[in-house]
Each structure stands twice: as structure tokens, then as C-alpha cells.
């Protein structure tokens, strides 16, 4: 039976979250295998306290110190598994792998299905928890199954696509099974044949600006276009503290959308089952928040190029950022009658 990794006391989490918030963990340990995780979960100090699993820390806002144990997932590994036919392949990725690293690996193997999800920050283990998505593609579109350890028993089990209960930025792990399992590996079903998805956002026009035909781009070219778009819109967390899109894009009924469209003719919308998805960034920008700065010296606020992104220019507290988010939500509610919900996990 392997020994548990060392438990550290009173560890700053500033370098473990992309917002750069200087919260502190009472206890902290990193694990690099299922066996190390199981050994940690057997420790009385771990069993008896609140647990937080950290990957890349790119979807978190700390508003306080964490009076429990932070478990840093560093399980690595990329393995190609045979698919059931010659048109697909299975890629198994350790939960601690960088998500974008997995996308690059898949492209290097001539596999498609992940290119629209290029440059999304964070690790593989977090991807299924919130069913990450971008530019018309979601993780569930390429998902086969995952492996996870049950916190209470230490048992490893598999979850099928259906068992994960995927929805828009949702899964069973954010609902009925929240805080009950730790993802250790994800298996993706990828295509050897390419069917480019360039209909969403600015992918088509970006490809054309790059001198590439938008009718039959390669997976690598679609990835390059997505990377170009993301870099033009979203700040690099290494330069400005942020967690990417702070809010989910709300969905409204067709009737509500038509009602709003009559009042705001420029309101964009994308049909989804049961209604219309409205870009949260557009709503926030219409309320005048884009580029807003607050706090001493304007040390936090809303990104100048993308109103969906809240930023820490340096020295902000998580409580300040949360208060700003609540102000934004209230203004959108008042102007449009639409309730915004954070995509970021607030602790």
C-alpha cells in the first residue's frame, strides 16, 4: 500500500488560481496517481475536513481562505486506445493533463473533434464537470467515459456518457454527485475523418482572413483560427488575473426573445432546444460595464475587449470581484429581465 503524499499546512493558493487571489489553504497535498489519491483519502485529517480538488484553478474565485484540504490533481498520461472501427480512436488522458495539451496531442495524431475547444484553460479533470464548450462544440460531443474515485470509499469506478448527465456547462458532478467523486482520467472518442464545424462565431471569417478556404479547412487550421479569436478577445491569465468567461450565456424562451428583440433590435440570439441562447457579454456591454475599473487604482474590473471576463489587475480580493459580479447581474436583471448565473465556481 503506497504512502500518502505529504500534507502541507497553511499554503498560499495565489499561484494555484488564474485570478491570482491570495487565499490560503489550511492543508494542501498534490497527488500524481490513483493510488496516491486513495492513500490521501485514507488519512484521518483528510477524511474529517472539507475537500477541494484543484486542477488548473482556471474556473475558481476564492473569496476567503479555505479551512479544509486542497487536493491538487497532477495525474498525467496520454494513451491512444483502439476504437471499435477504423473511423474513430479513443484517447485516454490523465485528469492532471493540460486541456489544450490534449487538443494539441490529438491534432498531432491526425484526430479531430477537439479543435473548436483549443486554448481553453484548465485541466482534463475539470472538463467534464462543467461540460466545457466553445464555438459550437461541447466536451460531451467527444466524450466516451471517465474514471473517478469516490471520496467516501476510495473506490475507483467508470461513468458512461449517459451517467454523466451533461447539460449546458453542467454535469451530474455539479448536481447530485457534487463533491462525491474526484475525476482521475477521461476517455475521448475522436474521429479520423474530419467534419469541420465553422458555423459558430467568427471562425469562418477568421479562416478567410488567414487565407484559408472555410469550406474544407483542416483540423489544425480550425484550431489556429480558434486560438487567434481567443487571443484577440481574452486576456492571458499570466498577464492579467482572470478565469475566462465569468457568466454563462442565458437561455430565454422564444416569446421572451421576441419581446426583447422588439425593444433591442440588435440583440443577438442562437436557437437552442426550448428557446434562444443570448450572449451574456452583449447584455453586460449594453449595461455599460465593458472596460469598467473599480477599487483602489482600478485594480479590478471588466476586461476592455470582452465584457464577459472579470479581471484582477493586481491586489484585488475575491470578495471585491464577487461584489462586482453581483452588481453586473443586478443591472442586467433590471435592464433586460434576464438572470445571469456565474460559470465560475465561487468559494
Provide a compact summary of the structure.
The protein has 347 residues and is an alpha+beta fold.
Task: Walk me through the structure.
The chain has 347 residues and is of the alpha+beta class. The protein folds into three domains: 8-73, Uridine Diphospho-n-acetylenolpyruvylglucosamine Reductase, domain 2, CATH 3.30.43; 78-232, Uridine Diphospho-n-acetylenolpyruvylglucosamine Reductase, domain 3, CATH 3.30.465; 241-346, UDP-N-acetylenolpyruvoylglucosamine reductase, C-terminal domain (Uridine Diphospho-n-acetylenolpyruvylglucosamine Reductase, domain 1, Alpha-Beta Complex), CATH 3.90.78. 24% of the residues lie in helices and 26% in strands. It has helices spanning 34-42, 44-47, 99-108, 161-164, 203-209, 219-233, 254-263, 280-286, 318-336; strands at residues 8-12, 24-31, 51-54, 60-61, 66-73, 78-82, 88-94, 133-134, 137-138, 143-150, 156-160, 181-191, 241-245, 251-252, 270-272, 275-277, 293-294, 300-302, 309-312, 345-346. Helix 5 (203-209) crosses helix 6. The protein is globular, with a radius of gyration of 21 Å. The two termini are 34 Å apart. The model has no long low-confidence stretch (mean pLDDT 90). The active site is at 169, 245 (proton donor), 343.
